[in-house]
Structure formats: C-alpha cells, structure tokens
Amino acid sequence: MPTDKLRLPSYGGQALIEGVLMRGAKFVAGAFRLPNGEIEIETEELSKIYQSKMTKIPFLRGLVILWDSLGLGTRFLTLSANKQGEEDEKLEGSQLALTLIISLAMAIGLFFVGPALVGQGLEALLKFPVGWGNIIEGVVRLIVVVGYIWGIGKMPDIHRVFAYHGAEHKTINAFEAGEVLTPENVAKYSLEHPRCGTSFLLTLVVLSVLVFSAIGKLPILWTVISRILLLPPLAMLGYEYIRWTANHLDSAFVRWLIKPNMALQRLTTNEPSLDILEVAIAAFNAMYALEHPGIIPLHPAETAVAEHAAST
Fold this sequence. Notes:
Blueprint (H helix, E strand, L loop, with lengths): L11 E5 L2 E5 L3 E7 L5 E7 L14 H25 L8 H33 L6 H22 L2 H21 L6 H4 L10 H19 L4 H10 L1 H16 L5 H6 L1 H6 L9 H18 L10 H10 L1
Antiparallel strand pairs: 1-2, 2-3, 3-4
Helix pairs in contact: 1-8, 2-3, 2-7, 3-6, 4-11, 6-8
C-alpha cells in the first residue's frame, strides 16, 4: 500500500451493526460479521455525484456529499441490522422510510429546536438581557449532544458499535501510516481521526452558537424556523472547517484547535477486539481492491474479499 501521505486519498468510513463501512473515491464496501461468525462483504459503486463538478465547489460540496453520505450510511446501517435479525424482523420499504423520517425529525427537534425553546424560555422567565437566550441555547445544545452520546454509549449494543467505530479509525490511521493491515498491527493505532463525523457534530454545535448569537433575538416562531432553515448552511460551514483542519495537521495551531473534537471522539469509540479489527480491515481491503484492481490485499480477510469478488 502507498506510504506517501501527500498522495493518499481521503478514505472514510462508518461503524455499522456488527460491521464497518469503508468509502473510497469511487467505491464503497461494507463488511459484516454474521451470526455464524463468517465475514460477508457488500460493495457498490458510488454515485457519480462524487466525481461531479459540484464536489469541487466550496461549501456546496459539503451539502451534496453530506446528503448523499447520509443516504448511503443509512442504507448500509439498515443492511447490517437486517443481517443480524430474523427474516420477519427486517426493516425495509415504507416502514424503513417512515422510521428514517421520524428519526430525522426527532434529531432536529432534540438537538436544534428543543434547545432554542429552552433558551428563549429561560431568558423570558429569568428576565435575562436580550441575547442571553441564544447563549443559553448553545450551552443546552452542547450538554444535550454530549449527554446523549455518553448515555447511548452505556447501552451494550451501542458500546459494541462504538468498538467497530474505533476499528474503522484504527484501520484508516494504520493505512495512512503505511502499515501492513493485520489486526495486531492496526490495534496499535489511535482511536481518534480528524475527519470523524463526531468532530463534525461538535463543530456544528459550536458554529450554531456563533451564528445564532449573531442573529440576535427573534419571535419564537421565527426562532424555530431559523434553526431548521440554517441547518444546511451550518453543515456546509462545518464540512469546510473539518476539511481544512484535516489538510493542515502539520500546523501546531490546527492540532491545538481540534483537540476538543478529538476528545469528544473518546465517547464514540471503544477499543476493538482483534475479531472486530478483522472486519474493519476486510471492509477496507474490499474497497481498496475495487479502487486499485490487481493489488493484493495485505490481510487474512482477503479470503472473504476473494469470495465476494468471485461471486459478483
């Protein structure tokens, strides 16, 4: 595998239920540990939007890529859940669509609309000076985000998903360091990665505090509407910030700047076992083999990759 960091593509991934998703420039691969202990791999070609001119336009590219990634990640997450359950427990069709809509609405309500209402309500109730409601809103939002992540991390199933998240980070860190990808080698690498979605989430919260405070006080209805309408622009700003920091890690100032982001990842990653690392490496090797035909994977999980390639 290449070791020249200036030429390395920005690979990314996502933890799944008993699995890991790895995304390259043109292909994506998911590896799943089935109930029988075997590793199964699913691959697909990425949407052409990733090679379009829109991904070269600052700010717009963030919205386009994040929206497509949301759909891609949701599909593979659902796929991973279905592989673990019985046939009659599978989530698909209209039931899946309804679940996603409800989940998205609840997330917006919990993390954006709810804190706004609390902030404005406390400002009026406690007769704080105008503008303090926005600051309270930001503090409440940060507490809700961190508390939510910490709380769900205590659930056994999510704790294991966070171990797969750690395996995803370790695998990419090992690759970017030029390491041969074996579970024992990958285990030595860091659980944190500067391009993590957790970092993006914290960045989004901080940006929301700055932007909403600058807007000032609005009638309660417009406060709620503004939090929803400004979410896409904030996401675009957050994407550009994460992209910029990830490309300037040689700067001591940037490394200091992203310390809160990296610290928050300690809540969303757990140390993976070797068998979990094996799944992450299998996903990476499957993706890498499609991106670079003819290059032999460097891990025993190449058996699962070869079996998948032979069946497609």
